[in-house]
Amino acid sequence: MTRQKIAGTALRLFLERGYDEVGIRDVAAEADVAVTTLFSHFASKEALVFEQEEHFEHRLMQAVTSRPPHEPLIPALRDEIRALVQHCAAESAAPVWCMIDKSPALREYDGAMRLRHAQSLATAIADLRPSQSATACRAIARFVIDAYSLAREAADPETAVDEIFQMIEAAWNAGVPS
Known about the structure:
This is TetR/AcrR family transcriptional regulator. It holds the Pfam family TetR_N. Residues 23-42 bind DNA. InterPro entries: Homeodomain-like_sf (IPR009057), HTH-type_TetR-like_transc_reg (IPR050109), HTH_TetR (IPR001647). The protein contains ten helices and no strands. The protein has 178 residues and is mainly alpha-helical. The protein has two domains: 2-43, Homeodomain-like (Arc Repressor Mutant, subunit A); 52-174, Tetracycline Repressor, domain 2, CATH 1.10.357. Helix 7 crosses helix 8, helix 8 packs across helix 9 (134-153) and helix 9 (134-153) runs antiparallel to helix 10 (157-174).
């Protein structure tokens, strides 16, 4: 409850005043929490904007590890990315993405976050298919993470997801050991 309150307050202040114009103390005061409480929930100011980061990564891991044994990997990841893109491509998310695009600190955090997600996803894929090279697992994981960003920015996000995942699936199938 406190975490969501802090994140919601921060996002509201960032959108009202501008990301660079709002400090951690401003967020803590507005959320009626101590700065130490804020930092017990968020490691940085940037993390306040990406508060769903762990949820995003968890959903991708679940798509890999919790799918039925007969369900192929790439379509499971495509379906998860499609669902995530639908949420982030919603009209209500546009101001947040505009803020992120305008802030070098937020763009840098987003890039680092995507690399962390790709590494976690690559590890999960490698555990699933140990015969696949580490390089192939990392490449597919990065393609999946980048598919999210590319589709989110596309005029037709759903079609973009399908188009990108056709390429990802072809690459994955090409790398299947005989």
